[in-house]
Design a protein that fits this description.
The structure holds two protein chains of two kinds.
Chain A: H1 3-26, H2 29-46, H3 53-73, E1 78-79, H4 97-103, H5 107-117, H6 123-130, H7 134-152
Helix pairs in contact in A: 1-2, 1-3, 2-3, 4-7, 5-7, 6-7
Chain B: H1 3-11, H2 17-33, H3 38-60, H4 67-74, H5 77-81, E1 103-107, E2 111-120, E3 124-133, E4 143-150, E5 153-154, E6 157-164, E7 173-182, E8 190-201, E9 208-210, E10 216-221, E11 229-237, E12 240-247, E13 251-257, H6 258-266, E14 273-277, E15 282-283, H7 285-288, E16 289-297, E17 300-307, E18 316-321, E19 324-326
Antiparallel strand pairs in B: 1-2, 2-3, 3-7, 4-5, 4-8, 6-7, 8-9, 8-10, 11-12, 12-13, 13-17, 14-15, 14-18, 16-17, 18-19
């Protein structure tokens, strides 16, 4: 199988996973799609040097999160003669209550919640992906759950993995 | 709310077919321009491997006050994800671009502010601060309002505040970096940083809570001894003149005559500068510049670009601006 075939297979396999990460981060689909394009371009340039699919997926998620951070911090081409805002608005229409509540969390808490409850990663795996300690992830998950409870007055499932 | 309700809701969020097709199209375009033979790729990989080992050797070297920036740049996502492409980083060169003083400038009952590092050159400066909120146990995304002045005059340029992720920091302390770009001279001036109205998201409500009622002011001398090197001087550019191009590890400054500069600015300056390194790495706008600024300066127009990670000017093979190759001195 050629590198291009491998790449196409990876795009089809992970496109929604990466899109959801980007969407959860920047909260509008235009920016999320731009971010996804950059992520998969990096995958293509990186080549298929992965131990297995789990390794590839974790690498893609890590790259996507870094790309999202870059996106939010990048201020692009401001001149004295005109300004340009590259960050589009927050899409809140047609979201379910639960997605709305998670998306309203600070980013620091949003990503651990998404990786834990949607991608089924363990606390240890999330710590590796986000480049932080397991204790920090545990604390972030606890605080995020507390915020979510206050927002929607329901229990957010607390599972131990 | 539980796991299933979140999962069901997120399942409906999918990438569009248009975006998928665009990704595959870009891959096809990319594959068309990257035809590298397997033999050459192997040789290049071995070369990269040797250089990575050399870089790791440098990293073990104990550095001065700019070590905080070495840590910051070496953890940049572009470097972490593709270290084989970033073989040119020589952090030792930053030594001459650092400024003093570092240390605690504010220390009262509520807050402590330490300047942990400053680097820069004629047109850019990065100032790294640790801010400790003494009466808090934990911080969640404080929202800083700030004003920057140079020698008492409002900064004529652009600035950004970048939260810096660091390990082993107390939970009530945050490291932030101010990045300044100016088309005017920065070095030799005193930076005044005014912080006020510090707020952070409240756990209990959707509103931000105010952390402190009053503001703080810091004065930081910017005295960089490192200077940019002129790599292009008085070169015709289309119908006009490119007076000079200056390069340092931190930035690239181009100076055009006013008419040419204005024409360029009308179309935006973001993606015009492309630098090719001797290792074939292309430094372009896509993730490698953090900011760009244009401004009139007497009868000339200056453009300043900052590099996202330090670049060794000796590694530059060629520079192209708006599709036109420049003749390097």
């Amino acid at each position: 199988m050629s590198e291009n075939d491998d790449f196409q297979k990876a795009v089809m396999l992970y496109k929604d996973t990466i899109f959801r990460i980007a969407y959860a981060y920047c909260r509008n689909h235009f920016d999320a799609e731009d971010i996804c394009q950059e992520v998969f371009l990096k995958l293509y340039r990186h080549g298929s040097r992965f131990n297995d699919q789990d390794h590839e997926k974790a690498w893609l998620i890590r790259v996507a999160i870094n790309q999202c951070k870059d996106f939010l911090r990048r201020k692009w081409v401001i001149s004295f003669f005109r300004g340009k805002d590259c960050i589009a608005g927050y899409e809140s229409e047609n979201q379910s209550e639960v997605v709305e509540a998670v998306f309203s969390l600070p980013i620091k808490y949003r990503m651990p919640i998404h990786l834990y409850y949607y991608e089924d990663y363990s606390i240890r795996e999330i710590a590796e992906i986000l480049g932080t300690s397991e204790t920090a992830i545990q604390t972030q998950l606890q605080r995020a759950r507390m915020m979510l409870r206050k927002k929607i007055r329901e229990e957010f499932e607390d599972e131990s993995k | 709310m539980n796991l299933n309700s979140y999962r069901q809701a997120m399942d409906k969020i999918r990438m569009s077919d248009e975006c998928t097709n665009e990704i595959l199209d870009r891959m096809m375009r990319e594959s068309g321009k990257n035809q590298v033979s397997p033999i050459r790729r192997t040789v290049v990989s071995i070369g990269f491997g040797v250089l990575i080992i050399m870089i790791l050797g440098f990293a073990a070297y104990v550095l001065g006050g700019y070590e905080v920036f070495r840590n910051y740049f070496s953890k940049d996502s572009a470097v972490v994800e593709m270290p084989q492409l970033f073989t040119y980083m020589d952090f030792d060169q930053l030594a001459v671009y650092q400024s003093t003083p570092t240390g605690r400038l504010i220390d009262d009952d509520e807050i402590a502010i330490d300047v942990v590092g400053i680097i820069g050159n004629e047109n850019v400066a990065d100032v790294m601060l640790d801010i400790t909120f003494k009466q808090l146990k934990d911080l969640s995304f404080p929202n800083y309002q700030y004003t920057l002045l140079l020698d008492g005059v409002l900064l004529q340029g652009m600035s950004d505040l970048i939260p810096v992720e660091t390990e082993n920091m107390p939970s009530n302390c945050q490291r932030i970096m101010f990045e300044l770009l100016s088309t005017d001279q920065i070095s030799g001036k005193t930076l005044t940083l005014r912080l006020r109205g510090l707020r952070q998201p409240s756990v209990d409500t959707d509103k931000a809570e105010k952390l402190f009622n009053y503001g703080y002011e810091l004065s930081i001398p910017l005295t960089f001894t490192g200077k940019s090197k002129i790599v292009v001087e008085n070169q015709t550019f289309r119908d006009g003149m490119l007076h000079q191009v200056l390069i340092s590890p931190l930035s690239c400054t181009l100076e055009f005559d006013e008419i040419t500069g204005r024409k360029i600015m009308d179309n935006g300056i973001g993606d015009l500068l492309v630098i090719q390194l001797k290792n074939n790495k292309i430094i372009d706008w896509r993730g490698h510049f953090t900011g760009a600024i244009a401004a009139q300066w007497v009868d000339r127009i200056r453009f300043v670009y900052t590099f996202r990670v330090p670049l060794d000017p000796a590694d530059i093979e060629s520079i192209t601006f708006d599709g036109i190759p420049l003749s390097l001195e």
